[in-house]
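ok trying this again, last paste got cut off
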Amino acid sequence: MPLIFDFTNLLTGGVGEKAGISEEEIKKFAGPAEKIVTEAEAKRLPFRELPYRDEYAKSVNSLAGECAGRFSTLVNLGIGGSSLGGNALVSALAGSGGNHREASVFFPENVDPDSFSRLLNSLDLEKTIFSVVSKSGSTAETAAQFLVVRERLISRFGPGGYRERVVAITDPKKGDLRRLAEEDGLRTLPFPDGVGGRFSVLCPVGLFPAAMDGIDIGEVLAGAREMDKRCRSTDLFQNPALLFAILLFLSSRKGRGMVIFWPYSDLLIPAADWFRQLWAESLGKRVSTSGEVISAGQTPVRAVGVTDQHSQLQLYIEGPGDKVVCFLAVNDYRTVVEIPNAGISLPSFSYLQGKTLNSLIRAEQEATEMSLTNAGRPNCKLVFPRLSAAHLGEYFYLLEVATAFAGALFQIDPFDQPGVEEGKKLTFGMMGREGYEEKQKEFLEWRKRPGKIV
């Protein structure tokens, strides 16, 4: 059974005329949708071809097989799109591959000196390999982490031992990380040209840490290929990526500027975090493709089931009606945990005895879904029949294509990120990077402004 997009509770019949979206509203997009899909098929963007790039899977599996016999830990040095996809795959599928690699994989995204030092000090460097991931090679956070690791490895094992313990995933031809990898003699995997970080989970960026953990990356790509077939349809009600994009676009038009991604599986929390970057960085744009100031986008927020039923749900049901909820539901969890029949007659305990945690979490998800619907709060869900490699491939591909389609609907470029560039330049200036002296001056002047503190 494939991944399912259930949008019942977004429609007017589910949540009421004012809150819901009518099928007539959706059908009005038939013409524009056909054009969007047709143009997307005519110009297949590089990220859409990744499920068919068998050479990437072969090179990743080959290198992972080579490393797995020697190293039991992988530390992935990357940030944002260079980390979130791999983390989502490993979290959801750890140990599911059955090929006895199953390395422990860490994703230290932040440059917090305390947490990074704690991680490094906890590692058995003899059995640890590092992947350093940066498309451009100029990512400050990744470069800084790499320099720390590089010095530690060379000091401990010498240049040869250092080379054995690092894999660089970067642009195949250019960039400072590519140059340094060649100078140091590091093994490399390609970060494909034309593929942005947040669309890179189905290339070596996400596949290498997954393969090191023993995940069947061939099945991940097979799932993405199956979803690609569905995403080629011009029929609004047969193309889940198109329908997802249209429904969230219409929700935004109706004043729902926030989308709550709510996994009912701890293993899918990083998959929700991956979506947050994808949706926010792709669609949050000040100007349209025609140059008009529109300040487009929806704010993605991650909740966790069942935890946030006791935290955020009160706001979502009775607070401002500016949100649309998307649940990530799982039909068959990997493990069944039975609740013992302990013979306790107290009412708070007796009804649970003899049941399972599986039935409880499913009941909690559906109860939350029903409560939101009854309160007139639109919601939908992506349903995983089970947490398999193929279903994760479907999930990533569906949402990547939906993001591209949503960019066309919002009339913005979903593949750039101009809003974050100024912060990068100012950071370069303050850290003394050559060519950014003016940014350093700006930053120093900004620091001199009068403050208001208590």
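PB: full thing came through this time. Residues 4-29+236-410 form a domain with the Rossmann fold fold (CATH 3.40.50.10490).
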